[in-house]
Amino acid sequence: MNTPTSKQAFVDFPSTLLEARSLIGGEWRTGAGDSRSIVSPYDGRELGVVRGVSLSQIDEAIQLAAGAFIEWRRTPQKERSAKLLTFRGLLVRDLEKLAHSAARECGKTVAEGRAEVLKGIEVLEFAAGLQDSDIGGAMDVSRGVRCEYVREPLGVTVGITPFNFPAMVPMWMIPIALSVGNAFVLKPSDKVPFTPCLLGELMLEAGLPKGIFSILHGGKDVVEALVDHRGVAAIGFVGSSPIARGVYVRASSTGKRALCLGGAKNHLILAPDADLKVAVEGIVASFTGCAGQRCMAGSVLVAVGESDHLVDQVVEAAARISLGRDVGALIDRAALTRLTQAIAKAEAEGAKVRLDGRAALPPKGHEGGAWLGPTILDHVTSTMECSCTELFGPVLSVVRVKTLEQAMALERASAYGNACAVFTSNGAVARYVAENATAGMIGINIGVPVPREPFSFGGTKDSKFGVGDITGVGGVEFWSQRKKVTSKWALQSDKNWMS
Known about the structure:
Elements: E1 18-20, E2 22-24, E3 27-29, E4 35-39, E5 46-51, H1 55-74, H2 77-93, H3 95-106, H4 110-128, H5 130-133, E6 137-142, E7 145-153, E8 156-160, H6 168-179, E9 183-187, H7 194-205, E10 213-215, H8 220-228, E11 232-238, H9 241-252, E12 257-261, E13 266-270, H10 276-288, E14 298-304, H11 308-319, H12 333-348, E15 352-355, E16 375-378, H13 385-388, E17 395-401, H14 404-413, E18 416-417, E19 419-423, H15 427-436, E20 441-444, E21 460-461, E22 464-465, H16 472-478, E23 480-488
Helix pairs in contact: 2-4, 3-4, 3-7, 4-6, 10-11
């Protein structure tokens, strides 16, 4: 297959069917479990097959990872960082290959595939920099008594990741977990197995010790086996809230450390004084980016006061979105059916369809894919399902309120707490929203307020189960533990009650 270029508008497809194998002990193995055919959301063509691993293969992978961990944890931080930086260079080298892989198996545009790899590289750069920033601490706390802490790895750690970001979400976890000295086992979504395999190939090329990074394919049975395995010390998870809650309860009941990120219903607060260009661009990008299949998508637009002129412009801008060029496909036909049914239900409940993505034409030659254009539902009420349930698609529900206090009451009433954004030209309004929103990530004139490293990614309420965040300084704390050492070498002639 030729190396794809950044000038290609659509994804590059392989000339032969692919096989996603699992990485166990530094060797690629065919799974002994059930197989699944993988089709592209772009046009429904078959990409290849993935076969899940058996229980014995899971146990073997964890045992080999535990053996590799013994030496990896003793490896100086500087040497671990050097391996990660080599890996970074390979990611940059193969950026376009990874971007096209992510796009063709999860449906996003090539530009979005490229962006997710670059975000993963950013996390890697932070992790590699821990050799200079995370240097521990020490202090003389009393006469002749010194306290210090050193950071210690946990052991064999596991990341369970979703279909919508096959490169980025694994890269939220892998670099930090490895940098602090853990072994890491990745269980990617069985809907998107090929991009994670490319990451595994680059890990081997970078010279990481065999077994220190593993990939295990499969479905629910593999997830449960990993969560239950006695050799696993910590679980990171990203997915829907019901499954996140279940994984967290199951893992924590066995004494494992767990951080499980769930879904969202993010509110975009639109004040009447918002800058027209900034607001329209930010809102449209927020609800249509990645076809709305991301936990940071703005899905509820709360229009405050006299905001008709702004909402009208949002509708007009979204109507100019082109399928395939600006917005990718949904993950599969089941998602398309679910979303079209949700739109029909909202219409039946009294919502006005201002922009109907069901009528959008798919790109020529890709009619067999799972395509839905941007959809805007206006005059939605808080009791409608579309205003409180995560739809996970390019659907924006517009709720009208008279005051900012009413807007914030809607945000606070949400079961989710990932993100909240406000569009305004008034600093006092921005500050009010930032101080009163219950979400974990706040945007001021930014529709997708994803923190940049070293600031951590993580929400609140039903968007997160567990303590801490998954990236940045929060990720460092999650994937490691602090060992405290208190020492005294001699009796002190001027000792007091502390010494």
